[in-house]
Amino acid sequence: MPIPFRKSVFLLLGGFGVVFSVLKISEGVTQPYSLKPGKQLKSTPELMALGKTTYLKQCSACHGVDGKGNGEAAYLLYPKPRDFVSDSYRLVSTWEGIPTDTDLFYTISRGIPGSSMPSWAHLPEDTRWALVHYVKSLATEPINVETTESDVNDQTGVVKVPAEPANDEKSLARGKELFISGCASCHGQNAKGENVQEQFDSKGFPIRPRDLTQGIFKGNPDSKEVYRRIIAGLPGSPMPASAWAYGDDAWHLTHFVMSLSSDEQREKVEMKKFTIVATKVSQLPDHPDAGTWKNAAPVNLHLMPLWWRTDRPEILTVRAVHDGKEISFLLVWADDTHDATAIRPQDFRDAAALELSGEKEPPFFAMGEVGKFVNIWMWKSEREADLQPVYQDIDKVYPNIGIDSYPNLTSPSVEQPTRNALTMQSDPTFITGWGAGNIVSDPTRRSSSENLKAQGFGTLKAFPKPDQTVQTKGVYDVGTYRVVFKRQLKSASQGSVEFKVGETNSVAFAVWNGSAGDRNGKKSVTIWQDLVIEK
Predict the structure, then answer these.
(1) Is 380 helix (H, G, I), strand (E, B) or coil?
(2) CA–CA separation, 257 vs 212, rounded Å?
(3) Identical fold at 45-137 and 161-267?
(4) What is the C-alpha separation between 261 and 256, in angstroms, rounded?
(5) Which among 106, 152, 110, 133 has a CA at the least distance from the CA of 50?
(6) For residue 528, which of 118, 314, 324, 407 sits 20 to 30 Å off, Cα-Cα?
(7) Angle of helix 223-232 relative to helix 248-259, nearest 10 degrees?
(8) Given 2.60.40.10, 1.10.760.10, 3.10.129.10, 3.30.565.10, which CATH number is that of 45-137?
(9) Contact (CB, 8 A) for 124 and 34
(10) What's the pLDDT score for residue 494?
(11) For the chain, percent of residues with pLDDT exceeding 70
C-alpha cells in the first residue's frame, strides 16, 4: 500500500541507508529576490522598450504577441492565460476592481498559484516594472486608478484595511457562519468547491470554485491581502465584491478561510528559484539508492501543473553530483500509481525530464526559443519496463492481433518464425521506424531515456543515435519514483549543453503522471533553477 505523502515523510530507500526528505521544503538555497518593490518606477520610453522585449521573450508564448491570451501554448493551459487587451484583472486591491501598478508588480513577481502563471521574481526589479507598464499599454481601456486608501464610506482607490480583531474561537465561529451563508453556495459546505453549479469566467471558459482546504491562493496569502480580496472580489470571475462584509466581518471570514489550510500547504504552491549544487565525488552512482547520494544536498522544487488540478505531484526532490568527467542527477517524486505502459491508446506513461540551457540569459523555460536551443533529457517509465527480462510487447497486450510476416534476412531460413515481432534479430528493412533511424523504434537501444533538443514549440527532435549519450536508471516502489540521469560534462553535439566545473547553468524539470492523462504538453513543471558545478 503506497505511503501517503501529504505530510512530511522520510523514506529509507534501499539497503544503503540513504534518507530522502520528500516533502520537507526547507532544503536548498531559496531565491534572494523580494516580491516587495524597493521603489516604484514610472513609465519611460526606455522602460517600455525593455518591457516589450521581455514580454515577447518570456510572456508571449502564453499570452500571445498581441496580448489577447492566444499564445502558442494557450491550448495546453488551464485556467486560460489572461487577455490583457479586453479582459478584467483578477488580483486587485481597489474598490473599483482595477489593479494598481503595485498589484501588477506583485502578480508578475509571485505568479499565480492555481494556474500556470509562474513567478518572475528572479528578473531584475526594473525589468518587472517594465513588464507592468508594457502590459498596461496593451489594454483597450487605460488602467489608471487612485492609489490612496479609503473605507466603505468613500469606496475609491485602495481598500483600507481596518484594525484586525482577535483571531480566536469566537472570530472563527463567526467566520464560519458568514462563510456558510455567503460563500458555501460556490465553495461548498466543506469549502472544497465540490458539487456546485457549473461556472464560467468573463471569456466563457469553465471555471471551478477554489478548494480552500488546499491552501492555493491566487493572490498573496497575507491576511491583509486576503481581506482585500474578500472585499474587492476577483473581477472577471464569479467571485463577487463583498462591501457588505467591510469591518470585522471580513476579518472573521479571513480568519476562517486561513484556518482551512496550513502554512506548509500554502508554501508548497509558491514557485521559487533555488540553487542546486552538483557536489564533486570520487565515483558517480549508477543506481538511485546508492550511498553516494547522501553526499549531495537535496533541493525540493515546487511543481506546477500546466493544466491545473489539485491532485498533482507537488514536490520534486533533486540531487546532483559529478566526478570531473561526468555529471549525474537524482530525481525523486511521489506517485500513487506506477504507469509503465503506453501500448493501448487509453494508457499514458509516467515520465520525467531535465531541461538545460547554456545561455547566460536562458530563453523561455518552456521549450526555448528560435535561435536559443534547450537540451532535454527525458526518461520514460515504459522504456524502463522494456529493458526488463520480461519486456512489454504488443503481442502480449493484444494476443489475438493479426500481423504480417516478413522474411527475416538476419536469420537462416530454417529458423524463420511464422510471426515476426520486433526483436533484436529482426531485419530493419521491414521495421520501417527502425530502418529510418527512429531511436524509439530501435530494439537494440539499452537506455530508458532520450537526448532531445528544441528551440521553440513544435521543434522538439531527438539527437541521432551516436549522440544518445544520456544514461538513466529508474526505480518505483512505496509510491515513489527515483530516477538517475547521467552524462559526460563535455558534449560536441550542437544543441547539447556542456557543463564546466565552477560555472552555473540553468536547469528546469518536468514530471508526467500517466494515470492523470498527462502526455506531451500536459505535465507539471518547475521554473528555471541555478545549477552550480562544484569545483
Answers:
(1) strand
(2) 7
(3) yes
(4) 10
(5) 133
(6) 324
(7) 120
(8) 1.10.760.10
(9) no
(10) 79
(11) 89
